[in-house]
Amino acid sequence: MRGARIVLFFILPLAAAAILAALASVGALRKLDGTLYDRQLALRPGAPVPRDILLIDIDAMPGSLAGLLADGLVTLKEMGARTAVLDLPLAQKSPPSLDPSVLRQTLPNALDTEFSQMQENIQSLFDAIRRGSVRPRDAARYVADLVNLVGQAKGRLLGASMGIERDDDARLGQAASFFGRVYVPLEPLDEPDPSVSPDLVELALQRQGLSVLVRGRDPTAHAGGLRPSVQPVVNAARGGGFPSDGADADGVRRRTRLLRESGGQHIGQLAFAAALDLLGGPSIEAVPGQVILRSAWLPGKQAATVTLPLDQSGAMLLAWPRASSGDGFRHLAWSDIVAARQLEDSLVSDLRDLDSHGYLTYLRSPQTPLDVYEDAARLSRGMLAAGADTDVDQWRDARERFFSLCDQYFAGDAESRIVADADRQLRGETLSDEEKRLVRVERDRVPGVFSDARDVFGRLQALRSSLQQALVGSFCIVSLGPGTAAVPAAAPQPETPFGAAATDSRASAALVATLLSGRFLREASAPVTLLAAAALSLVAAVVLLRFKPLAGFLVGLGASVVAFAGLGALFVLAGYFVPPSLPAASMLATVIALSSLKAGWKRAASRTVRAAFGGRVSAENMLLIDASREQLALDGSRRTLTVMCLAEDLPARGPAGDPRDIVRRLRTHREAVGEAVAGLGGMLVESGARVTAAFGAPLDNADHARRACLAALRARALERELNGGVALEFSSRIGIHTGEGVSGFLGPGRLAVYGIVGAASEVAARLETLNESLGTSILVSESVREQAGPGFVARRVATVAVGRQDSLRAYELLAEQGGPGELPAETILEFETAVSRFETGEIAAAARLFQQVLARVPGDGPSMAYIRRCRRRMESPGRAE
Predict the structure, then answer these.
(1) Which candidate, 641, 637, 645, places its Cα nearest to that of 684?
(2) From the CB of residue 432, how many other CB atoms can be counted at a distance below 10 Å?
(3) Which of 604, 607, 625 lies closest to 683, judged by CA?
(4) What is the C-alpha separation between 99 and 165, in angstroms, rounded?
């Protein structure tokens, strides 16, 4: 039975782990594990965020996205940005748009030139007619020539206006080629999109796919189809990849995939593909649970093999930065880039206005800012058209020269010199009054023009300085801001484990930060988590085996808390996350189930004990037996104990009397005997024809013989009280023996009957029967007399045969020393001498001694019994006793 319980103790933990693992497999514990992951991640030391990572948020989108990006990439190139990851929707072709430079410069200049020329031609014709240089009859020919010139001007104006429409996708492709390190989206699909050209997909895979060596099972996810960016962008981009995966089921972004497979070709996550360039273009291997980068250059380290751990879904955990506010990354608003271009256009417009009045000639330089600006613009147009940055250094130098000349011009004395020249003209006598009025108007205009231009230039310089500081050497991730993203307002926004917004671009930034930090997080697989749950549950079972139910529950609960804390510490210190809900829940379920089971066993055992010993031992002993039943050998043990057998003497009317009266008398007497036995720590073993009591079982008593003797004497005293002067109403015969016996539950069947078998019981019963022939009431064996100690008065009454060869001396227990019923020592000595004479065959001498004892103790039963035996022996010498 105990072995079956132990087996059950170890089956239940495994069953609990298996059941909870089944629940975990369907996601029942996923949300709890996610919350625990977030709490534990908050306790880990925050990983440093590389300053190179810069998130550029497009917060406004005037015009087409492709056109906006084309202009912005030029600015990023000028400011020294290293990488541009365009985490944007670029799969749809952009509609035709208008070239603002044509509207602002080309077309106005053409209109001004052509209409000025026409005005000059018309004016020349009419002047010639007025002077007579052209005769009236020849005017028709000159008018025809003038009409022809107007037609030519119209054609030139139409040509200039045709350049106002532009292909922004082509411009974005040119800008991407010019920038160099541009990475664009390659959206994975569940199945092929029939609207996407297979040739474009093939081109995207050729240009943006990664060379991945797969060893063993491929841990990457499969994509049924792909949706690339538009073709000019695909042709020009350095690489591409798929955007970050969505959030976990609870809306928190904790992980992202690194690789996907489509048509046997692998593509990387968009930022991962771009980050490979930062790492020196390492070779890639994919094995179950890992992506291995060989010869990767982490910042500040030598080339080494970097192992990126994957979870069981093939995704990598993100080491999100922890910040007091925001997401922890640097951000730049795209509107600042747009504002810089607008301020630059405004500055150039102011410069053109100043140049139209001849004011740029006051710059002490052989070149004007507009000349240098046009040189830089020509270089830029050439590189964009070629899709290369061959003249980028010369272009940047020209740009720097332009702004340097502007600073020299606006900080110099050009304004004061212009005003001084105007003042000299006004003081002179060469100008008419009308001309002086015009000069005065122009002179008064100069300070305002310069002030406006200086303000524009100052704001532009401050903004450019800020942009350059943010962009130089940066790994830029460009995405749509909240105001422009095509996300329904009611859609839930993913979050980081720390509660900040977690957009696709921020997840990409977290991925790059994780790669560059080299501090990777690992998550245990489902089999490892199940194994941990089973192991911890078995530990809990072992703990519970050693304790009582309540103590075991408390210790098991504490062990569960310690295990939970240990798993948390493993993640906090080593970055290895074992989802704790399954092990903790399995361990807790084991603790509850086994504690309840053990408590049930305890209650069942307690009921068995109470059923077995109820009414047979004292209340105090019952509590002791119940409390120590696991230490007691209740199933069977061999022990030295003292057994007392008691048989009642029925009155003269015998068993034929009134049954109710007999039962009442026996019940009253046995209750008194039971009180005597229980009060001295004994146990009633049997209550049938005779009452059997044991001392020293099931609880050990060092003085069990003494207790048995006291119980016998108390039973006799209680009988005298019950008799109340009525002779033989309550009387009994008692035999007591100390020896070996086997005790335990004897059945039958499943009945909880605790009994004793062996020599101790048999000898006690034999002594009880001898009381009648010896005229005694309490007979004890010699072993009882020796172990009971000196506190009793007893006399030897006979040598009793036990079995076929053994014998023992029987003693009559008379009283406690100093108690009632005690005989004088000389009387006891004289009686024992008589018994010795009788046993040696000196019958006549023995008879005389017994007569002397009887004279001293009238009615002494043993003396009277021996006198009768002596007479029979003397009357029949050969008769055996």
Answers:
(1) 645
(2) 8
(3) 625
(4) 6
Nearest 5°: phi and psi at 132?
90, 5
Cα 81 to Cα 507: distance, rounded to the nearest angstrom: 20
State pLDDT tens for residues 534-554. 888 888 888 777 777 778 788
Work out whether strand 212-214 and strand 283-287 pair parallel, antiparallel, or are unpaired.
Answer: parallel
In whole angstroms, give the CA distance from residue 653 to residue 641.
37
| 555, containing H or E segment | helix 549-574
Q: How far apart are CA 475 and CA 505, in angstroms?
A: 12
pLDDT in tens, 490-528: 457 888 998 888 888 999 999 999 999 888 999 998 888
Going by the DSSP 8-state scheme, the letter that residue 809 receives in this structure is: E
Say whether 597 sits in a helix, a strand or coil. Answer: helix
Q: What is the pLDDT of residues 271-296, one digit of tens each?
A: 999 999 989 999 999 999 999 999 99
Degrees, nearest 5: CA angle 771-688-635:
110
Residue 485: exposure state from Cβ atoms within 10 A (0-12, 13-18, ≥19): middle
- Quick one: tokens of 251? 């809306």
Q: Please report how the helices 581-613 and 30-41 are oriented relative to each other, as an axis angle in degrees rounded to 10.
A: 110
Average pLDDT for the chain: 84
Alpha-carbon distances of 57 from 86, 332, 479, rounded to whole Å: 11, 6, 5
Distance CA 283, CA 260 (A): 16
Rounded CA-CA distance 594/576 in Å is 30
Residue in the block written with tokens 């693992």: 21
CB 536 within 8 A of CB 582: no
Peptide bond into 95 cis (omega under 30): no
The predicted-structure confidence for 72-104, as pLDDT tens digits, reads as follows 999 999 999 999 999 999 988 887 765 555 455
DSSP code for 137? G
Supply the pLDDT for residue 282.
94
How many whole angstroms separate alpha carbon 229 and alpha carbon 203?
11
Nearest CA to 164 among 70, 98, 111? 98
On whether the CB atoms of residues 574 and 523 are closer than 8 A, the answer is no
When pLDDT is averaged across residues 378-383 and rounded to a whole number, the result is 91
| Terminal Cα distance for the chain, rounded | 52
**8-state DSSP, 806:** E
Tell me the DSSP string of 341-385. Answer: HHHHHHHHHHHHHHHHTTGGGGSSSSS-HHHHHHHHHHHHHHHHH
